[in-house]
Amino acid sequence: MTTDLESAVSAWPGVVAGPHRFAGTEFTVGGREFGHVHGTRQVDIPFPKGVRDAVVDEGRTSKHHLYPDSGWVTKYLHAESDVEQAVWLLRLSYLLHVAALQRRPDAEEAIRAVDVAAETAAMDLSAGLREMFAARTGGRTRRASDA
Fold first, then answer.
1. Distance CA 125, CA 122 (A)
2. Distance separating alpha carbons of residues 3 and 1, to the nearest angstrom
3. Domains by residue range for the chain, with CATH
4. Choosing a second label site near 113 at 20 to 30 A (CA), which of 15, 99, 100, 124?
């Protein structure tokens, strides 16, 4: 099940997929890990705690299986719909990292070109997640046309 997930996530601008220190595949953007896969049935994704709480409260995932008090979540993959949800969660984490990277003057062009505002608008975020995302990104996202 994770082959399609890994292919999809690896194709996003600026993403590097490589071995994770605890086995599996790690995804990074700008040197920042935004998630990893263990085996074929488990995806772990870091979020700020407020975002973690929201995605857990919305029933999209569960708290991390080993570190429930952290900002990490664990998405178990039992069906294709779980894979789709894991990709959605990874995309949310990715966009949070991209938005932060875009504020850096040395951001790579591939990162600068991501239209975070348009991407999050297309994600069907809850009102709470949309507010948290705007607060975490300062409501500022840089598009390629702003560069």
1. 8
2. 6
3. 2-146 (3.90.1150)
4. 124
